Amino acid sequence: GKVTEIEGKVKDRDKNYSPSLSVDLDQRIIKAECGCYWHKSNKLQKGPCEHILALRTLNDRVEREAISRVI
Q1: Cα–chain center distance at 6
Q2: Which residues pair with 27 in a beta bridge?
């Protein structure tokens, strides 16, 4: 099936992160990476870190806005 790859930069206080994630057709995160302590310690076993979630949220918002402009 189709997989969407998302990459970006997230600033958290004085640190910058470059999270990335892969989302399947059902919108499930199937792979993700981030350099923060939470992700390094837990991977996705306890859910995605706030940086991965922020990137996904922004990407979802941008996609919804693009669709609403087309309709």
Answers
A1: 6
A2: none
Sorted by sequence, the CB contacts under 8 Å of residue 66 that are 6+ apart come out as: none
HEC sequence for the chain: CCCEEEECCEEECCEEECCEEEECCCCCEEEEECCCHHHHHHCCCCCCCHHHHHHHHHHHHHHHHHHHHHC
Q: How far is CA 34 from the centre of its chain?
A: 9
What would the pLDDT profile of 7-60 be if each residue is shown by its tens digit?
Answer: 999 999 999 999 999 999 999 999 999 999 999 999 999 999 999 999 999 999
Q: Of 31, 39, 30, which Cα lies nearest the Cα of 10? A: 39
